Protein backbone atom coordinates (compact mmCIF):
# COMPACT_ATOMS: atom_id res chain seq x y z
CA UNK A 1 0.00 0.00 0.00
CA UNK A 2 1.41 3.43 -0.99
CA UNK A 3 2.16 6.11 1.59
CA UNK A 4 -0.57 8.42 0.24
CA UNK A 5 -3.19 5.66 0.50
CA UNK A 6 -2.10 4.82 4.05
CA UNK A 7 -2.40 8.48 5.14
CA UNK A 8 -5.91 8.71 3.61
CA UNK A 9 -7.02 5.53 5.38
CA UNK A 10 -5.76 6.76 8.75
CA UNK A 11 -7.58 10.08 8.25
CA UNK A 12 -10.86 8.28 7.57
CA UNK A 13 -10.43 6.21 10.74
CA UNK A 14 -9.53 9.17 12.97
CA UNK A 15 -12.23 11.62 11.84
CA UNK A 16 -15.26 9.84 13.47
CA UNK A 17 -13.32 9.48 16.73
CA UNK A 18 -12.55 13.22 16.75
CA UNK A 19 -16.24 14.02 16.28
CA UNK A 20 -17.18 11.90 19.29
CA UNK A 21 -14.40 13.41 21.41
CA UNK A 22 -15.86 16.87 20.79
CA UNK A 23 -18.67 15.88 23.13
CA UNK A 24 -16.65 14.26 25.91
CA UNK A 25 -13.49 16.43 25.99
CA UNK A 26 -12.80 20.12 26.53
CA UNK A 27 -12.87 22.17 23.35
CA UNK A 28 -10.98 25.33 22.58
CA UNK A 29 -12.99 28.52 22.75
CA UNK A 30 -13.68 29.25 19.12
CA UNK A 31 -15.58 27.79 16.20
CA UNK A 32 -16.78 24.56 17.90
CA UNK A 33 -18.32 26.40 20.85
CA UNK A 34 -19.65 29.19 18.67
CA UNK A 35 -21.53 26.64 16.57
CA UNK A 36 -23.63 25.59 19.57
CA UNK A 37 -23.81 28.85 21.50
CA UNK A 38 -27.24 30.01 22.77
CA UNK A 39 -29.12 32.69 20.90
CA UNK A 40 -27.15 35.97 21.23
CA UNK A 41 -30.43 37.86 21.71
CA UNK A 42 -31.02 36.01 25.00
CA UNK A 43 -34.49 34.95 23.85
CA UNK A 44 -35.46 31.29 23.84
CA UNK A 45 -35.64 30.31 20.18
CA UNK A 46 -34.81 26.59 20.15
CA UNK A 47 -36.28 24.10 22.65
CA UNK A 48 -35.53 20.41 23.17
CA UNK A 49 -38.13 18.52 25.22
CA UNK A 50 -37.14 15.22 26.81
CA UNK A 51 -40.57 14.97 28.50
CA UNK A 52 -43.74 14.02 26.58
CA UNK A 53 -45.83 15.73 29.27
CA UNK A 54 -43.89 18.99 28.95
CA UNK A 55 -44.19 18.77 25.17
CA UNK A 56 -47.97 18.58 25.59
CA UNK A 57 -47.80 21.68 27.80
CA UNK A 58 -46.02 23.57 25.03
CA UNK A 59 -48.65 22.46 22.51
CA UNK A 60 -51.44 23.64 24.83
CA UNK A 61 -49.89 26.87 26.06
CA UNK A 62 -47.94 28.02 23.00
CA UNK A 63 -44.26 27.67 22.26
CA UNK A 64 -44.44 24.36 20.43
CA UNK A 65 -43.22 26.09 17.26
CA UNK A 66 -39.89 26.58 19.05
CA UNK A 67 -39.37 22.84 19.64
CA UNK A 68 -36.50 21.41 17.56
CA UNK A 69 -35.93 18.19 19.51
CA UNK A 70 -38.24 15.68 21.20
CA UNK A 71 -38.71 12.09 22.39
CA UNK A 72 -40.45 9.42 20.26
CA UNK A 73 -43.53 9.70 22.52
CA UNK A 74 -44.08 13.47 22.34
CA UNK A 75 -47.43 14.33 20.74
CA UNK A 76 -48.24 17.28 18.50
CA UNK A 77 -44.67 18.22 17.53
CA UNK A 78 -43.96 15.61 14.88
CA UNK A 79 -41.82 18.03 12.87
CA UNK A 80 -39.13 18.12 15.58
CA UNK A 81 -36.20 15.68 15.49
CA UNK A 82 -36.10 12.78 17.96
CA UNK A 83 -33.02 13.46 20.11
CA UNK A 84 -33.58 11.16 23.11
CA UNK A 85 -36.01 9.74 25.65
CA UNK A 86 -37.13 10.41 29.21
CA UNK A 87 -34.03 8.51 30.32
CA UNK A 88 -31.72 10.96 28.56
CA UNK A 89 -30.59 12.47 25.26
CA UNK A 90 -28.41 11.22 22.45
CA UNK A 91 -25.43 13.54 22.95
CA UNK A 92 -24.59 13.92 19.26
CA UNK A 93 -28.21 14.67 18.31
CA UNK A 94 -28.60 17.18 21.15
CA UNK A 95 -25.38 18.85 20.03
CA UNK A 96 -26.75 19.15 16.51
CA UNK A 97 -30.08 20.58 17.75
CA UNK A 98 -28.31 23.63 19.29
CA UNK A 99 -31.00 24.25 21.95
CA UNK A 100 -31.39 27.38 24.05
CA UNK A 101 -33.60 25.46 26.51
CA UNK A 102 -33.94 21.77 27.43
CA UNK A 103 -36.99 20.42 29.30
CA UNK A 104 -36.36 17.43 31.56
CA UNK A 105 -38.64 15.32 33.78
CA UNK A 106 -36.00 13.74 36.04
CA UNK A 107 -36.37 10.53 38.07
CA UNK A 108 -35.99 10.53 41.85
CA UNK A 109 -32.23 10.06 41.37
CA UNK A 110 -31.96 13.48 39.74
CA UNK A 111 -31.04 14.91 36.35
CA UNK A 112 -29.00 12.73 34.01
CA UNK A 113 -25.34 13.78 34.50
CA UNK A 114 -24.92 13.69 30.72
CA UNK A 115 -27.50 16.49 30.41
CA UNK A 116 -25.66 18.59 33.02
CA UNK A 117 -22.34 18.04 31.26
CA UNK A 118 -23.81 19.04 27.91
CA UNK A 119 -25.37 22.09 29.56
CA UNK A 120 -21.97 23.10 30.92
CA UNK A 121 -20.38 22.79 27.51
CA UNK A 122 -23.17 24.23 25.38
CA UNK A 123 -24.63 26.86 27.71
CA UNK A 124 -28.33 26.05 27.29
CA UNK A 125 -30.89 26.59 30.05
CA UNK A 126 -32.66 23.65 31.73
CA UNK A 127 -36.14 23.33 33.22
CA UNK A 128 -36.08 20.15 35.31
CA UNK A 129 -39.23 19.23 37.23
CA UNK A 130 -40.76 16.03 38.55
CA UNK A 131 -44.47 15.92 37.72
CA UNK A 132 -46.27 14.37 40.71
CA UNK A 133 -49.19 16.79 40.89
CA UNK A 134 -50.81 19.98 39.70
CA UNK A 135 -48.36 22.16 41.63
CA UNK A 136 -45.48 20.55 39.74
CA UNK A 137 -47.23 21.23 36.43
CA UNK A 138 -47.78 24.82 37.58
CA UNK A 139 -44.06 25.12 38.38
CA UNK A 140 -43.26 24.27 34.75
CA UNK A 141 -45.87 26.77 33.49
CA UNK A 142 -44.29 29.49 35.66
CA UNK A 143 -40.79 28.59 34.49
CA UNK A 144 -41.87 28.83 30.84
CA UNK A 145 -43.45 32.21 31.59
CA UNK A 146 -40.32 33.47 33.37
CA UNK A 147 -38.27 32.62 30.27
CA UNK A 148 -40.66 34.31 27.88
CA UNK A 149 -41.73 31.11 26.15
CA UNK A 150 -45.37 31.78 27.10
CA UNK A 151 -47.07 35.01 28.16
CA UNK A 152 -48.02 36.02 31.69
CA UNK A 153 -51.69 36.03 30.68
CA UNK A 154 -51.42 32.38 29.66
CA UNK A 155 -49.83 31.59 33.05
CA UNK A 156 -52.65 33.41 34.85
CA UNK A 157 -55.29 31.58 32.81
CA UNK A 158 -53.74 28.25 33.85
CA UNK A 159 -53.78 29.24 37.51
CA UNK A 160 -57.43 30.26 37.28
CA UNK A 161 -58.38 27.06 35.45
CA UNK A 162 -56.78 24.78 38.04
CA UNK A 163 -57.73 26.56 41.25
CA UNK A 164 -60.50 24.01 41.92
CA UNK A 165 -57.97 21.17 41.77
CA UNK A 166 -55.67 22.84 44.29
CA UNK A 167 -58.63 23.46 46.58
CA UNK A 168 -59.65 19.78 46.40
CA UNK A 169 -56.09 18.70 47.20
CA UNK A 170 -55.84 21.11 50.12
CA UNK A 171 -59.09 19.76 51.55
CA UNK A 172 -57.82 16.19 51.09
CA UNK A 173 -61.09 15.24 49.42
CA UNK A 174 -64.65 15.89 50.49
CA UNK A 175 -66.04 15.22 53.94
CA UNK A 176 -66.60 11.59 54.88
CA UNK A 177 -70.24 12.46 55.55
CA UNK A 178 -70.75 13.82 52.04
CA UNK A 179 -73.06 11.33 50.31
CA UNK A 180 -71.99 12.60 46.88
CA UNK A 181 -68.45 11.34 47.35
CA UNK A 182 -67.67 8.18 45.34
CA UNK A 183 -65.26 5.78 47.01
CA UNK A 184 -63.18 4.00 44.43
CA UNK A 185 -60.04 2.24 43.35
CA UNK A 186 -58.34 3.36 40.15
CA UNK A 187 -56.11 1.08 38.08
CA UNK A 188 -53.75 2.14 35.32
CA UNK A 189 -52.97 -1.45 34.28
CA UNK A 190 -54.35 -4.97 34.71
CA UNK A 191 -51.37 -7.20 33.94
CA UNK A 192 -49.99 -6.66 36.53
CA UNK A 193 -52.62 -4.85 38.60
CA UNK A 194 -51.36 -1.27 38.79
CA UNK A 195 -53.08 0.80 41.48
CA UNK A 196 -53.11 4.60 41.60
CA UNK A 197 -51.84 5.48 45.08
CA UNK A 198 -51.72 8.69 47.07
CA UNK A 199 -49.37 11.58 46.20
CA UNK A 200 -49.80 11.09 42.46
CA UNK A 201 -51.39 13.35 39.88
CA UNK A 202 -54.20 10.84 39.25
CA UNK A 203 -54.97 10.80 42.97
CA UNK A 204 -55.44 14.56 42.66
CA UNK A 205 -57.71 13.95 39.67
CA UNK A 206 -59.81 11.57 41.80
CA UNK A 207 -60.24 14.18 44.56
CA UNK A 208 -61.05 17.02 42.15
CA UNK A 209 -63.66 14.83 40.43
CA UNK A 210 -65.48 14.17 43.72
CA UNK A 211 -63.99 10.78 44.52
CA UNK A 212 -62.16 9.26 47.45
CA UNK A 213 -59.22 6.99 46.79
CA UNK A 214 -59.42 3.84 48.93
CA UNK A 215 -55.75 3.07 48.29
CA UNK A 216 -53.81 4.41 51.26
CA UNK A 217 -50.27 3.79 50.06
CA UNK A 218 -48.38 6.39 48.03
CA UNK A 219 -47.13 6.13 44.47
CA UNK A 220 -47.80 3.73 41.62
CA UNK A 221 -48.44 0.35 43.23
CA UNK A 222 -48.17 -3.13 41.75
CA UNK A 223 -50.71 -5.21 43.65
CA UNK A 224 -51.80 -8.82 43.76
CA UNK A 225 -55.35 -10.11 43.55
CA UNK A 226 -55.65 -10.46 47.32
CA UNK A 227 -54.66 -6.84 48.03
CA UNK A 228 -56.95 -5.47 45.34
CA UNK A 229 -59.99 -7.49 46.44
CA UNK A 230 -59.38 -6.69 50.12
CA UNK A 231 -60.02 -3.00 49.44
CA UNK A 232 -63.69 -3.85 48.77
CA UNK A 233 -64.25 -0.82 46.53
CA UNK A 234 -67.80 0.15 45.56
CA UNK A 235 -66.39 1.40 42.25
CA UNK A 236 -63.38 0.30 40.19
CA UNK A 237 -62.15 2.68 37.50
CA UNK A 238 -59.79 1.35 34.84
CA UNK A 239 -57.78 4.01 32.99
CA UNK A 240 -56.94 3.15 29.39
CA UNK A 241 -55.44 5.08 26.49
CA UNK A 242 -57.55 3.15 23.98
CA UNK A 243 -60.27 0.53 24.03
CA UNK A 244 -59.49 -3.20 24.14
CA UNK A 245 -63.09 -4.38 23.54
CA UNK A 246 -63.67 -4.98 27.25
CA UNK A 247 -61.03 -7.68 27.79
CA UNK A 248 -59.38 -5.98 30.77
CA UNK A 249 -62.69 -5.16 32.39
CA UNK A 250 -63.64 -8.83 31.97
CA UNK A 251 -60.45 -9.77 33.84
CA UNK A 252 -61.43 -7.47 36.71
CA UNK A 253 -64.98 -8.83 36.83
CA UNK A 254 -63.65 -12.38 37.16
CA UNK A 255 -61.81 -11.67 40.42
CA UNK A 256 -63.18 -13.17 43.68
CA UNK A 257 -64.85 -9.99 44.96
CA UNK A 258 -66.70 -10.27 48.29
CA UNK A 259 -69.21 -7.83 46.80
CA UNK A 260 -69.03 -7.14 43.09
CA UNK A 261 -68.16 -3.48 42.51
CA UNK A 262 -69.36 -1.23 39.74
CA UNK A 263 -66.82 -1.21 36.94
CA UNK A 264 -66.08 1.90 34.89
CA UNK A 265 -63.55 2.72 32.20
CA UNK A 266 -61.84 6.10 31.82
CA UNK A 267 -60.77 6.13 28.19
CA UNK A 268 -58.24 8.96 27.96
CA UNK A 269 -54.70 9.05 26.57
CA UNK A 270 -54.29 12.39 28.39
CA UNK A 271 -54.69 10.57 31.74
CA UNK A 272 -51.28 8.98 31.24
CA UNK A 273 -49.50 12.36 31.10
CA UNK A 274 -49.28 14.81 34.02
CA UNK A 275 -49.76 17.83 31.77
CA UNK A 276 -51.94 20.89 31.25
CA UNK A 277 -54.74 18.55 30.15
CA UNK A 278 -55.36 17.40 33.72
CA UNK A 279 -58.50 19.60 34.07
CA UNK A 280 -59.95 17.77 31.04
CA UNK A 281 -59.17 14.42 32.67
CA UNK A 282 -61.01 15.60 35.81
CA UNK A 283 -64.04 16.46 33.66
CA UNK A 284 -63.90 13.04 31.99
CA UNK A 285 -63.72 11.24 35.35
CA UNK A 286 -66.64 13.25 36.70
CA UNK A 287 -68.79 12.11 33.80
CA UNK A 288 -67.71 8.49 34.42
CA UNK A 289 -68.50 8.64 38.14
CA UNK A 290 -71.88 10.30 37.57
CA UNK A 291 -73.18 9.30 34.12
CA UNK A 292 -76.50 11.05 34.82
CA UNK A 293 -74.76 14.42 35.10
CA UNK A 294 -74.38 16.50 31.98
CA UNK A 295 -70.88 16.19 30.60
CA UNK A 296 -69.19 19.60 30.70
CA UNK A 297 -67.71 20.90 27.48
CA UNK A 298 -63.96 20.75 27.54
CA UNK A 299 -62.50 24.19 27.94
CA UNK A 300 -59.92 25.45 25.51
CA UNK A 301 -56.45 25.28 26.99
CA UNK A 302 -55.10 28.70 28.01
Molecular structure report:
This protein is an alpha/beta fold. The chain folds into two domains: 43-161, Rossmann fold (3-Layer(aba) Sandwich), CATH 3.40.50.1980; 175-289, Rossmann fold (3-Layer(aba) Sandwich). The chain contains twelve helices and 13 strands. Residues 1-41 have low confidence and may be disordered. Helices cover 39% and strands 17% of the residues.
CATH topology of the largest domain: Rossmann fold
**Can you name the CATH architecture of the largest domain?**
3-Layer(aba) Sandwich
Compute the separation of the termini in Å.
68 Å
- The pLDDT mean sits at 85
How would you spell out the order of helices and strands? HHEHEEEEHEHEHHHEEHEEHEHEH
Spell out the CATH superfamily of the largest domain. Nitrogenase molybdenum iron protein domain
Indicate the multimeric state: single chain
Distinct helical segment count? 12
**Main beta-sheet annotation:** 6 strands, mixed
**C-alpha Rg, in Å?**
24 Å
Low-confidence runs of at least 5 consecutive residues: 1-41
Note the beta-strand portion: 15-25%
Q: What structural category arises from helix and sheet content?
A: alpha/beta
Count up the domains: 2
Q: Notable features of this structure?
A:
about 300 residues; alpha/beta; Rossmann fold; 2 domains; 6-stranded mixed beta sheet; 12 helices; about 15% strand; elongated; disordered N terminus
Amino acid sequence: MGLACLVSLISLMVLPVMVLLMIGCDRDAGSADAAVAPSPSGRIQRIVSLSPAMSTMLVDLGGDELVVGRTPWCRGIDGATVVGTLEGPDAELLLAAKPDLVLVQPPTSGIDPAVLELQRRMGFQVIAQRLDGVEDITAVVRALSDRGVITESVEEAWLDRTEFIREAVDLDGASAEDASVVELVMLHSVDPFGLVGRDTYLDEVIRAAGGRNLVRRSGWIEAGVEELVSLEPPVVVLVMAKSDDGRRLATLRSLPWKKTPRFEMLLSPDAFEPSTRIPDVVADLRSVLDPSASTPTREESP
